[in-house]
Amino acid sequence: MCGRFTSTTPPSVLAESFAVDELRLDDDLVPRWNVAPTLPVLAVAESRRNGARRLGTFRWGLVPRWAESPAVGSRMINARAETVSTKPAYRDALVRRRCIIPADGFYEWKVIDGRPKQPYAIARRDGAPLAFAGLWDVWRDPNDTDAPPLQTCVIITTEANERLAAIHHRMPVVLPAAAWDRWLDPSNQDVDALLALLVPAPADDFVTWPVRLLVNKAANEGPELIEPIDDEESAAGGAGDAGSTATEDLQLDLLSPLVED
Length: 261
What we know:
Elements: E1 4-7, H1 11-17, E2 22-24, E3 32-35, E4 40-46, E5 53-60, E6 78-80, H2 91-96, E7 98-103, E8 105-110, E9 118-124, E10 130-139, E11 150-159, E12 170-172, H3 180-184, H4 191-195, E13 206-210, H5 231-235, H6 242-255
Parallel strand pairs: 2-5, 5-11, 6-11
Antiparallel strand pairs: 1-3, 1-8, 4-5, 7-10, 8-9, 9-13, 10-11, 11-12
């Protein structure tokens, strides 16, 4: 799964990196080192009407347009590549509403006997932004026709590559630049060809390092969350908000079976 990631690169830089034509951003979007489900995130998508590539603000956690309530989005932060073409919540979006969710890095938790799960930060070796394969949808409140539409998205995950498998058995699908146009093109509705893109990125593209338990608490923010810790600190469980660790680990455990429908 992918339950937290970092998003600190300025939108103007991302717009250039992803050859964006239009920016549609919320005014209150800020850099985050601990992006959690239901928070606003950036995503790149192309218009079916005129082909314009847009960088916009979405809420993380897909709410299908047919959902009765937006609350369902908190359980749809990840979609498994193996079933994304068959699950009702995702199959239409795979054909018609694909996006790229830029990130600077993400976190995974390693299970270690007798100790709290150890969080690791993961990023590209060359420092370039990650391009998570995603899907998006728009939900409108059937009980309030004047309410603004809710744009939401989900990150697609796949089996971890050899480097990341030592930490966790899943990872986000990270698309290479050569696949961006094919993934974003709304006229591309070849499901088999799209599914062929949803594979683990090469292990040598990534670096990983242990970080403090501070990241366990969604309210914690700041660049200190991605600072590496040494082996001695890691063996002690990492320094952090110890009072919240047990609760946050329990929340992650409860979430894990739900986020990859």
